[in-house]
Amino acid sequence: MDAVRAVAEPRRREILRLVWDAELSAGEIAERFDVTFGAVSQHLKVLRDSGLVTLRQEGKKRFYRADREAMGPLADYLQSMWAAKLDTLAELAEAAERVERGGPGHSEGASP
């Protein structure tokens, strides 16, 4: 499977995001999902076979990390996509905080 088709699946994109800056064990990755370890393991295999993650084995543990260099331009696209989502989340959090403080858009004191 090519890299673009591999990242088309939302769980695989989330796995990539998790291992973007840090190496995680398969178990640590699986803990973050509401599917079986086997399902996460299959996603990891697709990512590995597509060259999107590297695998390091230490004893019985398997550790995964995004291989940004191998991704080429896809790495920039994924990073910008996650940054845009974080920007949106930050804007929503700031808006909620303004409402809690009684800032613009707050209707406290308005007549019914």
Give an account of the 3D structure:
- This protein has one domain (3-98): Winged helix-like DNA-binding domain superfamily/Winged helix DNA-binding domain (Arc Repressor Mutant, subunit A, Orthogonal Bundle), CATH 1.10.10.
- The chain is built from six helices and three strands.
- Helix 2 (10-18) packs across helix 4 (37-49).
- The chain is 58% helix and 12% strand.
- It has helices at 3-7, 10-18, 26-30, 37-49, 68-71, 73-101, and strands at residues 24-25, 53-58, 61-66.
- A three-stranded antiparallel β-sheet has the order 1-3-2.
- The protein starts with a helix and ends in an 11-residue tail after the last helix.
- With 112 residues, it is an alpha+beta fold.
Task: Describe the SSE topology.
Layout: H1 3-7, H2 10-18, E1 24-25, H3 26-30, H4 37-49, E2 53-58, E3 61-66, H5 68-71, H6 73-101
Antiparallel strand pairs: 1-3, 2-3
Helix pairs in contact: 2-4
Organism: Streptomyces glomeratus
Protein name: HTH arsR-type domain-containing protein
Domain HTH arsR-type: 1-93
